[in-house]
Amino acid sequence: MATVNSARADDSVETVIIGAGVVGLACAAVFARRGQRVLVLEKHGRVGDETSSRNSGVIHAGLYYPQGALKTTLCVRGRELLYARAARQGIPHRKLGKLIVAVDAAESSTLEALAARARENGAGALRMLESAELHALEPRVRASAALLSPESGIIDAHALVQAYLAEAKGHGATLALRTTVEGLEPVGERLRVVARTANAEPDAIVAERVINAAGLGAFDIARLAGLASSRLGVAQHLCKGDYWKLTPRLRGVVSHLLYPLPVRAGLGVHLTLDLDGSLRAGPDTEYVSAARYDIDETKRVAFAEAVRRYLPELRDDDLTPDFAGIRPKLHGPETTFHDFVIADAAQHGVPGLYNLLGIESPGLTASEAIAEHVAGLAGV
Ligand SMILES: Cc1cc2nc3c(=O)[nH]c(=O)nc-3n(C[C@H](O)[C@H](O)[C@H](O)COP(=O)(O)OP(=O)(O)OC[C@H]3O[C@@H](n4cnc5c(N)ncnc54)[C@H](O)[C@@H]3O)c2cc1C
């Protein structure tokens, strides 16, 4: 671990960040910008290689979650920061708007309730559309009503990750790739981080604070510091979401992000557009015992049926397997919501440790707001 080896353990690094996903790197950018000496440790050979590159790439407006929840406030703030950053730094993005559709009268009342919540949440401009208005916007979609969120959009997540990394490095942060954190122990008010690179002996560094932004591995990191799930009061549930590509035949069939009403564990199988205009359906929700990224071909019919509810012309053979992502949820299939947990010593008792747990959607949208929130907790 060259970076840790070369660092003088007592004074060269104030903040160690575990995980170079979009959230860890947003933290690196914000902490480094605010004058902190930052070291980011990432087990893979490149940044943003896990959940940050396995998602819908949607900039969420902040429609769905309860008022006052971190998922809501950080999404709304994060969305504003994200559009500003994307415009400033030329990160590819499009504010193309999103439609949540109700396919029948029974769903329309649920949609009204969602619209009311979204307004309370500060999700930006919103408009309820009757079927004729929807038809004018999206002639090939079938629904009885829709909620239009013009503030929703898409962003190149890879470019965003690179932008955070460049900003962090520009302010002096260091990134150590292929470096897996294997130990974390309190040393007085500070923390000793033990990490290992491939083929190397473990090495250690002492930091004033450690930000645990390890995504799917965040509970493992917490455990290294003696914080089992029982002490944290939350547990991680892995919830896989698969995506299917739509055939080029259907290119241009919709021009907005198209969502059904949310389901228990997710937002429902939706249609998203890539920046190049190609369409993708997904993700579904499947609780799994271990992370895996295969696409089960037998799900094709279920996906096609889910999309046909609002896009009747879709045929089963219009879908081909694309990719999967894993949500680090803090609730299982029997409940519908758990907020992000962003916890410091006041909650868990380990000085200097900031645990970021359950950073599922809208974590990409909220990334910089999450970083600001952690910086606020740390007094940076
Ligand atoms: C299917 C799906 C769809 C989604 N869609 C959206 C969306 O449209 N919009 C949105 O806003 N959000 C979305 N999200 C959520 C968003 O993708 C995540 O919230 C975000 O990517 C989380 O970033 P992260 O940095 O916390 O985690 P990650 O990207 O997983 O990064 C964590 C990093 O920590 C590293 N790590 C782990 N353990 C160790 C260790 N011991 N030592 C060193 N490094 C370690 C990992 O290698 C990894 O690189 C979606 C998520 C999923 C799964």
Report on this model:
- The protein has 380 residues and is α+β, with helices and mostly antiparallel strands.
- Residues 5-11 have low confidence and may be disordered.
- Helix 2 (22-33) packs parallel to helix 6 (157-170) and helix 3 packs across helix 11.
- It has 3 domains: 2-53 and 158-233 and 338-378, FAD/NAD(P)-binding domain (3-Layer(bba) Sandwich); 98-150, no CATH class; 235-255 and 268-333, 2-Layer Sandwich (D-Amino Acid Oxidase, Chain A, domain 2).
- It is 30% helix and 27% strand.
- Strand 1 (15-18), helix 2 and strand 2 form a beta-alpha-beta unit.
- It has helices at 2-6, 22-33, 70-89, 105-121, 131-137, 157-170, 218-224, 229-232, 300-308, 345-348, 363-378; strands at 15-18, 38-41, 58-59, 93-94, 98-102, 127-130, 145-149, 153-155, 174-176, 179-187, 190-197, 203-207, 209-212, 237-246, 257-259, 270-273, 279-282, 286-288, 319-329, 341-343, 353-357.
- It has 11 helices and 21 strands.
- The chain is elongated and about 65 Å long.
- The strands form 5 sheets. Strands 9-2-1-13-21-20 form a 6-stranded mixed sheet, sandwiched between helices.
Keywords:
380 residues; alpha+beta; FAD/NAD(P)-binding domain; D-Amino Acid Oxidase, Chain A, domain 2; 3 domains; six-stranded mixed beta sheet; five-stranded antiparallel beta sheet; 21 strands; elongated; binds flavin-adenine dinucleotide
